[in-house]
Specification:
six-stranded mixed β-sheet, alpha/beta
C-alpha cells in the first residue's frame, strides 16, 4: 500500500536518473561545481537574493482552490526559516547547531509574468482530474495541470490534490518543464485547507506517533522540498524544530 504521507523526491529523482542520461550528467556537473566552490572557501555573499515564485493552484473542487491567505502563510514560514528568523530556532538539536545559518534567500510572489505583463504570481487552473500522482502530469496543461513558467526566472510551485505523496521536488539539472516543487494542498501553508499536523496545530504524526510538541511541521513540508530543489539531498527522517540549511557558497 502506498505511503501517502511520504516525501517522494528521491523516488522521482531515481526515476529520472534511470530514464535520462542527460539528467545524470547535468546533476553530476552541478554537484562537482558546488563541491569545488565549497572547498575553495570563497567568501559568502552578503546580499539577500529574492527569488520570484509562481504558485500554480490546480483544483477540481472549491476546497482545493487554496486562498491567497494560505499562499501568503506558506511564504511567511518559508522566509522565516531560510532567514533563520523562525521563533523556534533555539530548539534546533545541538548536533546540527553549527550548520544553522541565514541563507540570505527570500521568496516573493512574482510581480511580472514571462512576457513582462503584471501578475499576482498565482495561476489558478480548474481541472477535471480527480487527483495527481508523482508522474508530473500536474506540470502540463495538456494533462489537466498547469505549464511551468521559465525555470531560469521563476520558482514553480504546484499545489494540488496529490494522491500518493505529500510532495516532491526536482533536483537541479532536470528538464526545465519539470523544474519546481509539487505539494498537496493540505500540507501547504498554515491556514485554509492545511491539515494537522502540517498546519502547526497540536495533533499526532500521520503514522500515529505522538508529536514531540505542537507545530513541528508548521508549513515546513514545502521548506524541506525547496531545500532539495536547492541542491540539498534528502536528510534522515527525524522530528523536532529545524532551521534552514547552510547555503552553498557562491
Amino acid at each position: 500500500m502506498p505511503d501517502t504521507d511520504r516525501c517522494a523526491t528521491m523516488p522521482v529523482h531515481r526515476r529520472l536518473l534511470a530514464s535520462s542520461p542527460r539528467y545524470a550528467l547535468a546533476l553530476a556537473a552541478i554537484e562537482n561545481e558546488t563541491f569545488a566552490r565549497r572547498t575553495a572557501r570563497a567568501a559568502a555573499r552578503d546580499e539577500v537574493v529574492t527569488i520570484p515564485v509562481v504558485v500554480h493552484v490546480v483544483h477540481r473542487t472549491p476546497e482545493q482552490d487554496v486562498g491567497q491567505e494560505q499562499i501568503d502563510s506558506q511564504l511567511k514560514v518559508l522566509n522565516a526559516d531560510f532567514r533563520m528568523a523562525n521563533p523556534d530556532v533555539s530548539k534546533v538539536p545541538q548536533v546540527w547547531r553549527n550548520v544553522v545559518a541565514d541563507a540570505r534567500l527570500e521568496f516573493r510572489l512574482a510581480s511580472t509574468g514571462p512576457d513582462g505583463e503584471p501578475t499576482s504570481g498565482v495561476v489558478r487552473v480548474s481541472t477535471d482530474a480527480a487527483g495527481f500522482s508523482t508522474d508530473d502530469r500536474v506540470k502540463f496543461s495538456a494533462q489537466g495541470g498547469s505549464d511551468a513558467w521559465p525555470a531560469d526566472r521563476y520558482l514553480n510551485v504546484w499545489v494540488c490534490e496529490l494522491t500518493d505523496a505529500l510532495g516532491y521536488a526536482a533536483f537541479p539539472g532536470g528538464p526545465p518543464e519539470l523544474d519546481g516543487v509539487v505539494i498537496r494542498h493540505s500540507a501547504f501553508g498554515t491556514t485554509g485547507t492545511a491539515a494537522a499536523p502540517y498546519d502547526g496545530g497540536p495533533d499526532r504524526h500521520p503514522r500515529g506517533r505522538p508529536l514531540a510538541e505542537p507545530a513541528p511541521h508548521l508549513g515546513r513540508r514545502r521548506r524541506r522540498l525547496l531545500g532539495q530543489r536547492l541542491r540539498r539531498r534528502h536528510p534522515p527522517t527525524r522530528r523536532g524544530p529545524t532551521a534552514a540549511p547552510r547555503p552553498s557558497r557562491p
